[in-house]
């Protein structure tokens, strides 16, 4: 993906540490470990809130939970592997470890990205077609969408391993995921699979920006017409949660497209920024659930009565079913 800086002839030498730790290694390693740990903690708390608050017992909540699980998995890889390896810079470690770290981290991160598009689409339909919403996001459809997204990213992750000479792994000395040359004398220092997938993800995420703009246009129209439904304010807040995340998501993907598959040895700062911006995006996603929902803030403050009153004001069904026909988006 990015420049490998191959010094030895052994396969996977790009994924070994430098054998000693520099001040930059310590700074970057602690940044990765700290940010990823925070992302994991915030993600787990998001799942806890979704499970225990009725306002999220609907299609939106389950989509959000599935995406959050992907983000937790991706950042656990950084907590367990990327951060510690950057801090210790070991040279006696199997390249398979770095490749496995990428495969697992990429699998979970891709799922989170795909589910983000589903969440955005869910919000657009809720605002544009409120009467058809419960018929579109039924219990069966929600389960199918989540399952398909998990299966889809399996094939995406396997593409790096199945297609010859496309392997990528985490490099402690370059602070990001890098292409692993299958031949030391190979001139190509990037993965074709990575090039295609990264640009495709950028395009999909940009399409999400367009769907968010369409949702915003409809919200403005509804406000001007004065035809707000009883769930309108909540729909607006849920929309804000998804749209604000596109800012950091687009920044992260733009950086990844620019830095990954680069054939230049320059731009170490850009590599660090690109790798950690995606982690920051996951933190931002988790915090959005708290920032844009007064019910959540009330729960954090211990205001259970206030939280219950807000939930009743939204007319949330008392059942804990995923069936969208029994909830309100």
From TrEMBL:
**Where do the G-protein coupled receptors family 1 profile domain residues begin and end?**
118-292
| Spans through the membrane | 27-48, 60-81, 93-114, 141-163, 196-217, 238-259, 271-292
The keyword Transmembrane helix appears for this protein: yes
**Residue ranges of the region described as Disordered:** 304-329
InterPro entries from the UniProt entry: 7TM_GPCR_serpentine_rcpt_Srx (IPR019430), GPCR_Rhodpsn_7TM (IPR017452)
Cellular-component GO terms for this entry: membrane
* Stored CDD domains: 7tm_classA_rhodopsin-like
Which UniProt key words apply to this protein? Answer: Membrane, Transmembrane, Transmembrane helix
- Is Membrane there in the keyword field? yes
Cell compartment(s), UniProt: Membrane
Q: What protein name does the entry list? A: G-protein coupled receptors family 1 profile domain-containing protein
Q: Which organism is it from?
A: Steinernema hermaphroditum
């Amino acid at each position: 993906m990015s420049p490998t800086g191959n010094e030895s002839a052994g396969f996977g030498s790009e994924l070994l540490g430098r054998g000693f730790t520099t001040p930059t290694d310590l700074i970057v390693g602690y940044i990765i470990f700290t940010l990823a740990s925070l992302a994991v903690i915030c993600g787990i708390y998001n799942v806890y809130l979704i499970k225990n608050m009725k306002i999220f017992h609907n299609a939106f909540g389950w989509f959000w939970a599935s995406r959050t699980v992907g983000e937790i998995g991706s950042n656990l890889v950084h907590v367990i592997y990327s951060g510690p390896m950057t801090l210790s810079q070991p040279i006696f470690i199997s390249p398979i470890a770095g490749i496995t770290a990428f495969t697992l981290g990429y699998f979970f991160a891709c799922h989170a990205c795909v589910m983000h598009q589903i969440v955005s689409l869910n919000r657009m339909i809720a605002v544009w077609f409120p009467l058809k919403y419960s018929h579109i996001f039924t219990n069966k459809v929600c389960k199918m969408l989540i399952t398909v997204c998990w299966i889809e990213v399996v094939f995406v992750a396997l593409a790096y391993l199945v297609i010859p000479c496309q392997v990528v792994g985490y490099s402690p000395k370059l602070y990001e995921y890098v292409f692993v040359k299958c031949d030391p004398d190979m001139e190509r220092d990037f993965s074709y699979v990575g090039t295609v997938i990264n640009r495709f993800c950028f395009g999909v995420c940009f399409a999400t920006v367009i769907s968010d703009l369409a949702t915003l246009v409809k919200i403005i129209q509804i406000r001007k017409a004065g035809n707000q439904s009883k769930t309108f304010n909540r729909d607006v807040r849920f929309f804000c949660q998804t749209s604000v995340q596109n800012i950091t998501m687009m920044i992260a993907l733009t950086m990844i497209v620019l830095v990954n598959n680069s054939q230049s040895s320059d731009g170490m700062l850009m590599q660090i920024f690109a790798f950690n911006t995606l982690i920051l995006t996951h933190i931002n996603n988790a915090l959005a659930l708290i920032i844009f929902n007064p019910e959540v803030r009330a729960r954090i403050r211990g205001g259970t009565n206030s939280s219950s009153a807000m939930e009743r004001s939204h007319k949330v069904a008392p059942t804990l079913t995923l069936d969208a026909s029994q909830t309100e988006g």
